[in-house]
Amino acid sequence: MGVEKGTRDSDIEHEEDLDEEPGEVIESAPPLKVGEERELGNSGIKKKLLKRGLGWETPEFNDEVTVHYVGTLLDGTKFDSTRDRDSSVIMKLGHGEVVAGLDHGIITMKKGERALFTLPPELGFGVAGRDAVPTSSFVRYEVELVSWIKVVDVSKDGGIIKKIVEKGDKHERPGDLDEVLVKYQVALADGTIVAKTQEEGIEFYVKDGHLCPALPKATMTMKRGEKVKLVVQPQYAFGQEGKDASDAICPVPPNSTLYIDLELTSFKPVIDVTGDAKVFKKILKEGEGSLVANEGATVTISYTARLEDGTVFERKGIDDGQPLQFITDEEQVIAGLDQAVATMKKGEHAILTVKPEYGFGNIETKRDLAIVPPSSILVYEVEMLDFIKEKTPWEMNNQEKIKAAERKKEEGNLLFKSGKYLRAGKKYDKAASYVGEEEVFGDDEQKLVTAMRVTCWLNKAACSLKLNDFQGAIKLCSKVLDIEFYNIKALYRRAQALIQTTDLVSADMDIKKALEVDPQNREVKLIQKTLKQLQAESNKRDAKLYSNMFADMTKQTSAITKKLKVERAEDDMKNGEAVAMEMENVADSSYPPDNAKAVDSC
């Protein structure tokens, strides 16, 4: 029933250090000493430590604990005892299966701990009392926490309840992309076993699912080596339809709850190297330490390369063959292999799956052992034998930093000339990092490194323009102009980028400033001509827009005026009709009395 199968040396070597009470509410309270009594927060519950427990973990509400207890009144009268029954009890915390106050006390205990709890009536048996417990009585429980099983609501709706029978090792849990190896046995409520893995278990990718929806969901919450019991409600099992018999499972009736014993034997982490699901790395064997090859490292690898159908097209460092050595991020191998190897540790063994975009593309390619057809998915099984990382700036003296910056800048220049602007930009970034503003240089070196930084920023800005990263170019040129206010290249390149972002006013200011320094500069005069054309077109568009706006306004005004005239005319007509009718009414109202008089007189 216990969570821990064994006791670690670290749990028992320094018992005096195991005094903390994670479950106590009192903040900054000193740890309880054996024989000391203290109230737990403002709960009214008092705890007296009788024997220290092991480790630092304590159970939580909903966990299933195994305990021994003896219940007495304050005068020592015993009313309940598991010791007398010679049998510990299993209870679910937070459900008040004995008394509510006891649950609140147990969550402050460690495995193996013994404590005496004094409970007030409202957290004991209350006003009603019970057999052998008078009404409104304080009671005492001497408790030993034997072990507990952690209970987790995996689905947060009670649909998948996980009880941890045996803890796993380490802290890593499998992710959605990872391949897991599990063992399980699935039973119905009546104990009928409907599915069971072979002794060696079964492998599957978490994202692909397996057996029923609950299994991958629960697996993602487990650590390597963890054993659990799952209670799975129908909505996470086979639902209202149930499951017909197959090779993997016996028939499952509709609306069945499943009881699954599950063990996560191991898992192989799978990493999306490029972030676009086109190069995956599955780690078969973890490497040494925490350092990875990274960009610019000289790596030595062995590998077998296959097509999806298993055809081997290349081997390096296998069967006494020479391993492959190359520098990462230098386009010496296909992009997928290059980028994946840069994430590997020394001694790491992995399988890479490379989509065509990061492989040989849609071109047929002849390799050592076979021809790779167009648009082929490639599979590399790679081992990182060794790598030598480039020195970082903090590992160099000032002269080494300056030389390294010069070398990277020249490499960037060569790449720029060959049209490889993205890689060239990275080289300029690297060069600038060696002589960064945070680095400390002597007075005789400062002028040189400042000029180096400015050159790298300007060259990277040129790359940004080629790659249509206009905001990036503006930012880099602005950094240069913060140092050299009238740097013509910076003003010229920033003006180019500003024109592309349609900020013609700011572009005009930069061009005028550049021409103040060099009025005959051909490139600046050409871009000024382009700018004037764009301004003229912009003014023409604006004029047309305003003309249309005024025309629309005139039409609207005319229509409104016409409408007002019509309304006025209608009002005038209505008013005229009203006056005429009123006159008629006046005339009509004067005639009958006269007529009446005439009749009367006759």
Quaternary class = single chain
What structural class do you assign from the helix and strand content?
A: alpha+beta
Compute the average pLDDT.
87
List low-pLDDT spans: 1-28, 578-602
Task: Output the number of helix runs.
Answer: 12
Instruction: Tell me what portion of residues adopts beta-strand conformation.
Output: 15-25%
For the termini, the CA-CA separation is: 128 Å
Helix content: 25-40%
Radius of gyration: 42 Å
Q: Could you give the count of β-strands?
A: 22
Shape: extended
Biggest sheet record? 13 strands, antiparallel
Biased composition (Acidic residues): 12-24
Biased composition (Basic and acidic residues): 1-11
Keywords: Isomerase, Repeat, Rotamase, TPR repeat
EC number: 5.2.1.8
Summarize the structure in short.
Belongs to the FKBP-type PPIase family. The chain is α+β, with helices and mostly antiparallel strands.
Fold and architecture overview:
Keywords: Isomerase, Repeat, Rotamase, TPR repeat. Its EC number is 5.2.1.8. Residues 12-24 have a biased composition (Acidic residues). Belongs to the FKBP-type PPIase family. The chain is of the alpha+beta class. It is built from twelve helices and 22 strands. Strands 1, 2, 3, 4, 5, 6, 7, 8, 9, 10, 11, 12 and 13 form a 13-stranded antiparallel beta sheet that branches. A hairpin with a 6-residue loop joins strand 14 (270-272) and strand 15. Helix 6 (398-417) packs parallel to helix 8 (443-466), helix 7 (421-434) packs antiparallel against helix 8 (443-466) and helix 11 (504-517) runs antiparallel to helix 12 (522-601). The longest helix has 80 residues, at 522-601. The radius of gyration is 42 Å and the shape is extended. 28% of the residues are buried.
